[in-house]
Amino acid sequence: MIHDFHVHMGKSSKGTSYTLRDLIDSMDRFEIERSGLSILNGVLTPELNDRVMAAVKEYPDRIVGFAYINPREPGAIDEVRRCLDSGLFRGIKFHSWKHGYFPDNNTALDGIIDAITPYDVPILCHTGTAPLSLPQQWASIAARHPKATFVFAHIGYLDFGYGCVECAKPLPNVYVDTAGQVEIQVMEKALEELGPDRIIFATDWPYKYPGSEIVKFEPYHLSPEDRQKIFYDNAKKLWKL
C-alpha cells in the first residue's frame, strides 16, 4: 500500500469539480491507503478546513487532515488551535503564492509556527512558484524554527529543484515531497543528498495523475526498504499513525 502525503479536493483551475468520492475512488484504484487532504480553492480558510474535517469524519482510516492556514488572516493562530485541538488534523498547509505573501518577509509567520510547534505536526509548504514560494524563502523560516517539522512540496518544482535540495540538505527538520517533480536529475540529487529517510511520496491529486507519479520512480531502482520509506513509512511517522 501507499501513503499519499499531499492531495486536494474541489474545483480545478479548469473548473472541474472533484469530490471526496472521486478521491476515494482514485485511492482505491492505485492502492493508496491514506491521503493527506487540504482544500485550497476558496476564500476563508475556516470554511475550507470545515470541509476537511467532514472528510476525515467520513473516512477516518483513509483521509488525513491538513489545516490550510493563511497568515494574513487576523485569526490565523486561533484557526491553528481550533483545527489541531479537534483531533481531526495531522498537519498544516501553507501556500504563500495563493495567499500572496513572501514567507521570509511575513512577520506573522513566526508566531503562527510557534503556535503549531507544540502539536508536533508536519508543516507542508508549497515550493517552486516564483516569486512568492521559493524553497529558499521557506528554508529561512525552517532554520529559525528547528523544533518544527517542514515538508517542502514538489521539491521546488521544475525551476527550483536543485536549490530546494541544497536548502533542505543542512536542515534536518526539512523533508521534501515528490508531487509534480519530474526532473530525473533533481530526483537523483534528492535521493543521493537527502536520502530516502527525508523524501515523501505525494501526488497533488487531482492536479497530477497518481499513476504517473508512481511510475516515475522506476528509473531509480529503489531497494524494497527505500521504497517502503518513501511510499509509506515516512508519512506514517510524520502523521504519527
Automatic annotation (TrEMBL):
BP-aspect Gene Ontology terms: secondary metabolic process
Residue stretches making up the Amidohydrolase-related domain: 33-241
Keyword tags: Hydrolase, Lyase
Keyword S-adenosyl-L-methionine carried by entry: no
Any one GO molecular function term: hydrolase activity
GO cellular component labels: cytoplasm
Alphabetized PANTHER family for the sequence: 2-AMINO-3-CARBOXYLMUCONATE-6-SEMIALDEHYDE DECARBOXYLASE, ISO-OROTATE DECARBOXYLASE (EUROFUNG)
Full protein name: Amidohydrolase family protein
Species, as recorded: Pseudoflavonifractor capillosus ATCC 29799
Organism phylogeny: Bacteria, Bacillati, Bacillota, Clostridia, Eubacteriales
